[in-house]
Amino acid sequence: MAAYTALKKEPPPLYPVVYYCDIFIIGFFWALTRDPLPLSNAKELEYMVDITHELLQRFHDSPFYLEKEQKRDFRRYTDKYCSTKKDEFEPFWNRIPAELNWKKRSKDTKPAAKKRRTEKLATFTEENLQRLEQAENMDKSKEAVPPEEKDEELEDEQEEHGIVEDDEEAISDEDYLEGENDYVQTYFDAGDDFDADDDNIDEDAY
Amino acid sequence: MFRDMTTVEVDLCVAIIQEYFGHDAALVGKILLTNMLTFHGLIMDLKSKLSVKQIRRIMAIFEHHNILIYTASERGVRYTIPIENVLRILRIPRSMVIVKLMYGKVAEAIFEEIFSQGKISCSDCIRHVVERLQCEINEAKAKFVRLTESQLLIKCPEIENAEYDCPVFAPLVDPFMMPSQILDGSDEIVPMEENLRKRKATIYKPDSDANTLWSINWPRVERFLRDELIVGLISQNELLDETSVNLARAVLKVGEIKADLIASQSNPIAVQEVSKYAREHEIKLSRDEIEQKLSILGKESSGIIHYDLAFDCICRQNIESAIREKLDDRSVRIFRLLCTKGYLEEEQMEKLAMLSSKEVKEICYVLLDHNFITIRPIHRTNDFNPVRCLYLYSVQLQQVAKSLVCLSSKALRNVIIRRQAEAKHNETLTDRQLKMESVISNIKKDTNMDEETKNTQIADVKEMYLTESDIVKLDKLKRAQTALHKAALELEQSLFIFQQYLLFKKSSTLQIADKKKSRKKTEIV
């Protein structure tokens, strides 16, 4: 009863409180009209506090937690000794959409393709040689096998490979480059009409 | 999906993410909590603050911890973070205590491991737990099996189709089945084929179950939490002794197996099932005793557990305690009166509560201020004459619960931020203390000196690093941190209660709406 009659005259005063975390938050809060009840001392609650503390520690030590990099005004000697080393985080790549993958890069297929191309060619020529050897042996041993068929087969395969070869050796810009000459790549030949448009420019005529 | 959230809850989730995952993750989380975006949209929002690689990494971390969800749509893959997923992080300590009480220390460690790793295979989990606790592998295996049997752990969906940009998941067939082979990975080196480049590292033989990942089955955990709350409610009744309370727990467990996870009422439970369960779990009561105690617990309910009514009660109790803390006992009296009677005028309240009219008026206005009760003016005449206007007070429990959800979220966020701020403010002091402790432990390990010199050295070190006032400050800081942690846990409990109550209410209104629809259909037909 007494509390209410006291309050009726004017509202309780506002107390400015400054909370700061990464930014300063200034808030004005009403003072409490009654004291808060004390927290319980139950063992369960204290055990839970320990668990939370442990969990937080675990998360902060794990690779999941990123400390905000503090830019100091000057470098300190202890900087490289203070920072703890954490394991790199490796997600299960096949469980997340491909766009979240920061390791695979889809743009670098050209050098790999080139390597593949040369590898394929190398294996192709080897295979071809082997086949020709085999064909020779076969010819020697069995003359009954018609060489025409063999040739056709070989031709077909060559065509296939040839087509593949053609595709692989698609015309790229590099083919237009001539190597080992004195022409500068960035040479620009303007021709006679380049500077013809300026009528009234007062240039010093040397 | 976004209709049920409030800015307050979003802010709380941002604070939680910041605490557990860091500042950058909080920036990403803030945008994803309120929107459903494509990856490109997210990059546009965060262009100035974070690099693309960092964003990718943070999103992968979120997905790994089951916080982020995504759906494939025509415009690409769209990502968002539901609030519930973040709030679950706060419920871990309580659920760990329940797991420990029911299944033991090793099971608790398994639970913690799975939570802190997000998703992990069975073998890896058991290995880590054995390393941490130095226990037997068989024991860890057995506990893992127990946890899967009680459905606290659930398998992550398998990948059906990995060709498209977004993985397609197959529906879970046996979500709780243990893999047949575990822990068979070893340090043998698998012989590599010759075509592979030489730079690849040696491949160790993986476990057979490396692809079946487990994570926490949250609906079941929430069910456990709810059961504990109901047992708490029942044990408040002083007429019941401990065996009855245990029996009540048994009844709830039996009900758990039968009903849906979010059912508002369980299916009827027979006495036989309860006695069977009691026998299995070593509750030494004869069949007759069980019947007797059950009849005390709920004579006319015919074996149905009414979760919604229980939560109604718990919610009401919490609101009353909130009123008692903020205001005083008489306000609680008025509140209870209104809850039981429905709509009342001031004069009626005077008579029923036995308070003077002045007091009643004051209390009602204060309660109105804090949004605990609502007022409804009813005009008797057509001309809205205020003299002839009747003002009815009532309690709209859902409204009150919603406002208290906001209040507890705000309070929880404040507590978290305050705790972080205090820790940061005293960072130098705590660092010094850590250094001092490491120096002392080095001295203790040193074998060159004898006890006396060690002690003198330790005393010197202590003096050098921390003064008396520093020690007092550190002690105060530690007590403040524990108090704030406790406050956060209690607040989280209240938040859970109010949210569950609102969930039950929502599902019951949906049920009523469905019934009306079906009735209308039958009428039309």
From TrEMBL, chain A:
Start-end of Basic and acidic residues biased regions: 131-148
GO biological process: transcription by RNA polymerase III
Compartments it resides in: Nucleus
Keyword Lipoprotein among UniProt keywords: no
Record's keyword terms, sorted: Membrane, Nucleus, Transmembrane, Transmembrane helix
Region (Disordered): 131-177
Transmembrane residue ranges: 14-33
Biased composition (Acidic residues): 149-177
Family that this chain belongs to: Belongs to the eukaryotic RPC7 RNA polymerase subunit family.
PANTHER family: DNA-DIRECTED RNA POLYMERASE III, DNA-DIRECTED RNA POLYMERASE III SUBUNIT
Protein name: DNA-directed RNA polymerase III subunit
Native organism: Acrobeloides nanus
Lineage of source species: Eukaryota, Metazoa, Ecdysozoa, Nematoda, Chromadorea
UniProtKB/TrEMBL annotation, chain B:
GO terms of molecular function: single-stranded DNA binding
Keywords: DNA-directed RNA polymerase, Nucleus, Transcription
Stated name of the protein: DNA-directed RNA polymerase III subunit RPC3
The RNA polymerase III subunit RPC82-related helix-turn-helix domain, residue ranges: 12-71
Cell location: Nucleus
Function: DNA-dependent RNA polymerase catalyzes the transcription of DNA into RNA using the four ribonucleoside triphosphates as substrates. Specific core component of RNA polymerase III which synthesizes small RNAs, such as 5S rRNA and tRNAs.
Family annotation (InterPro entries): POLR3C_WHD, RNA_pol_III_RPC82-rel_HTH, RNA_pol_III_Rpc82_C, RPC3, WH-like_DNA-bd_sf
Subunit structure: Component of the RNA polymerase III (Pol III) complex consisting of 17 subunits.
Keyword Transferase (UniProt): no
GO cellular component, one term: RNA polymerase III complex
Gene Ontology biological process: DNA-templated transcription
